[in-house]
Amino acid sequence: MPEVEILMTGSYPEWDMVDLEANYRVHRLWEATDRQTLITRVGKDIRAIATRGELGASAELMAQLPKLEIVSCYGVGTDAIDLSYARANGIRVTNTPDVLTEDVADIAIGLLLATARQIPQADVLVRSGLWGSVAMPLVTRVSGKKVGIVGMGRIGKAIAKRAAAFGCDISYFARHDHTDVPYAYEPDLIALAGWADFLIVIVPGGEATVKIINADVLKALGPNGILINVSRGTTVDEQALIAALQDRTIQAAGLDVFLNEPRVDARFLTLQNVVLQPHHGSGTVETRKAMGKLVRDNLAAHFAGSALPTPVV
Ligand code: 8YV
Description:
alpha/beta, Rossmann fold, 2 domains, seven-stranded parallel sheet, five-stranded parallel sheet, 12 strands, globular, binds 2-keto-D-gluconic acid, 2-hydroxyacid dehydrogenase, NADP
């Protein structure tokens, strides 16, 4: 029986579970009928948490695990992990950068094409047998348009590269000018939204970016504008977005992330001008295999006393 006890906050694909179960004594928090009972029973022996980007690890959870040494996150975003608590208590934190960059950039462009070209609506029209009797409306071109990217980290850069291949003009908002990219820096988000045809959000979640896409930004984006969010639900004021979609302050939105996911605000489901994804930007077999391996490599390195492949804290 493996000795090191780990707590998993949510499931991983079977290939990771098999490997983790072979090397650790795994406690499955998401399967517990009463989570607190499980934590109270096993908490004192837990040395690692394996979590996912959207599930994170709160200070409240970590505080109940006195032997906790490491939180390994299946995802690049660590906004749901209390990093200050981890730092203050000598708990290491790792994530899975780089391996998911290309897939998240792909889904950003995919959502933009799906939204502007109304691909899901066109699919419904053909399936419903209405082709020939109902005209598909003319839609919005993507190529050659102005793309505003909110966030110019690894994924922002990968999105920009793709948009450039579509002949788009690119400008971006970020905390600072990135001198390693050939795109125009716009430090004023409202000015960026006013300029852009399409606004793609890929900033990290967390306090600094809560509701940065607010009613004013949406108003500036305007009635022909399209918003794509592949960051976190917290970065967009959802009430303002729903209102803007309902009254056509903006044309449409393509969303991979939501507040309170997986419980999506029911009003999104009634809107025709929104394309919805179940937080699946990194959800390819190739990327998820690489993410799982990185989580396992970080845990293995930690317990072998080696340098962590992708440390955050
Ligand atoms: C994953 C993510 O969907 O990388 C992140 O921060 O949110 C995603 O890649 C998630 O962690 C998998 O559950």
